[in-house]
Amino acid sequence: MIKAVILLDDVGELILQRVFMGSFDKTALDLLRTHVLGGSISQPILRIPPHIYAYKRCDALHFFCTISAKTDTMSAITFLDRFYKAMGAFLKEKELAGNLRKFIPLIHELLDEMIDNGDVQTTDPEVLKLFIQTRQKINKAEESNQQITVQATGALSHRRQGIIYKRNEIFIDVVESVNAMFNNVGQSLHADVSGKIIIKNSLTGMPDCSFGFNDRVVGAGASGPRTEVAQQVAGVSQAGVVMDDLSFHHCVRLGNFAVDRSIAFVPPDGEFQLMAFRVTEEVKEPFSIKPIVTVHGRNRMEIVLNLRCGIPSNNVAEHVIVSVPMPSNVSDVTAIESLGKCRLRKDGQAAEWRIKSITGGTTATLSMEVQCVSSSSIDLREWRRPPLAMNFDIPMYTASGIEVRYIRIIAQEGYETEKWLTYKTSAGTYQIRW
């Protein structure tokens, strides 16, 4: 019985997570990342409470599946091997070794055919190709029928006729999650941003909306920046943002986007996700931490964390939490903070430094003395320290540098529209080695 399938890369980044039974929360995922980054996985079966995992590493990919205590472990390991081979049958070698996130829908479809309610079904790649090709043909036929209906009647499947509002408004929320990994001297090893644009609207009739922002990629999956001439046509500056893995709501007219980079659409009524994207170049990490650790014998250590908020001075980060992992035999933690408060969690697994708000450009320091039980077998001089983790929220700021440059709404009814725009950046997997 397979409860969930998780796929991580060599730096602990989540590529895919599919839950078939039960649950798999962020805490369990963070523990799994810690083992991958620590290089401590040497067995095909491992127990990381509350889960039991079957594990297989293929090149730079780490495959896990959670299993029940009664599951035949050999069958779970065999499934992971066949899952990897099935992916290889559908993807080219360079695609399998490259950015797998572009092929997440295909991988999900593979899992749908291979597992049913936790039970392994078909694993033969040739049989899987028959099922998935058939499904693709059906989807193309449905899309073709929808296009014919729109051309013949002028109707839109995602918006009904006759919508009327007394007050016409549109809200655009740019929401980003920044992932980063730093070494023990505060240097960035990896950073990327996963973002989405959420639209909430109450607009009368069938409004034609469009907006543009400062990105300079030719299109989704493009290999490089556009030419200077194309940038001038689109009104995009050289200081744009390179965006990857673009995906759009079906209301977006992709022809307009390919020609002049404008996002044109007739929105569904209410709230929906207009687009999703990733940024992997020139990411602005909001925080950096330089840790200094001094170990005194086997039972005591001193930790100094120098935190710097790197956002502009007119921005404020809120709900900042720095989690410092503790050894299981910790007995006492004494902390001195220049800002915020630091307390040992009730479960004893980490000390949390909480800062309610911090202005951009500000620095803060935390000094800690950690005392451990002397009778324990754990020696702090040999203890492998899991990475520090951060959480935060930053209103009206984007780590990618994306900015919405204009919003236009054309309605036959001729009404005026109130336009609202917000930005928000939060921590994804934000870790610091120490």
Automatic annotation (TrEMBL):
<keyword id="KW-0653">Protein transport</keyword>
<dbReference type="InterPro" id="IPR028565">
    <property type="entry name" value="MHD"/>
</dbReference>
<dbReference type="GO" id="GO:0030131">
    <property type="term" value="C:clathrin adaptor complex"/>
</dbReference>
<comment type="similarity">
    <text>Belongs to the adaptor complexes medium subunit family.</text>
</comment>
<dbReference type="InterPro" id="IPR036168">
    <property type="entry name" value="AP2_Mu_C_sf"/>
</dbReference>
<keyword id="KW-0813">Transport</keyword>
<keyword id="KW-0254">Endocytosis</keyword>
<dbReference type="GO" id="GO:0006897">
    <property type="term" value="P:endocytosis"/>
</dbReference>
<protein>
    <submittedName>
        <fullName>Clathrin associated adaptor complex, mu2 subunit, C-terminal domain protein</fullName>
    </submittedName>
</protein>
<dbReference type="Pfam" id="PF00928">
    <property type="entry name" value="Adap_comp_sub"/>
</dbReference>
<dbReference type="InterPro" id="IPR050431">
    <property type="entry name" value="Adaptor_comp_med_subunit"/>
</dbReference>
<dbReference type="InterPro" id="IPR043512">
    <property type="entry name" value="Mu2_C"/>
</dbReference>
<dbReference type="GO" id="GO:0005905">
    <property type="term" value="C:clathrin-coated pit"/>
</dbReference>
<dbReference type="InterPro" id="IPR001392">
    <property type="entry name" value="Clathrin_mu"/>
</dbReference>
<keyword id="KW-0168">Coated pit</keyword>
<dbReference type="Pfam" id="PF01217">
    <property type="entry name" value="Clat_adaptor_s"/>
</dbReference>
<dbReference type="InterPro" id="IPR011012">
    <property type="entry name" value="Longin-like_dom_sf"/>
</dbReference>
<feature type="domain" description="MHD">
    <location>
        <begin position="167"/>
        <end position="433"/>
    </location>
</feature>
<keyword id="KW-0472">Membrane</keyword>
<dbReference type="GO" id="GO:0006886">
    <property type="term" value="P:intracellular protein transport"/>
</dbReference>
<dbReference type="InterPro" id="IPR022775">
    <property type="entry name" value="AP_mu_sigma_su"/>
</dbReference>
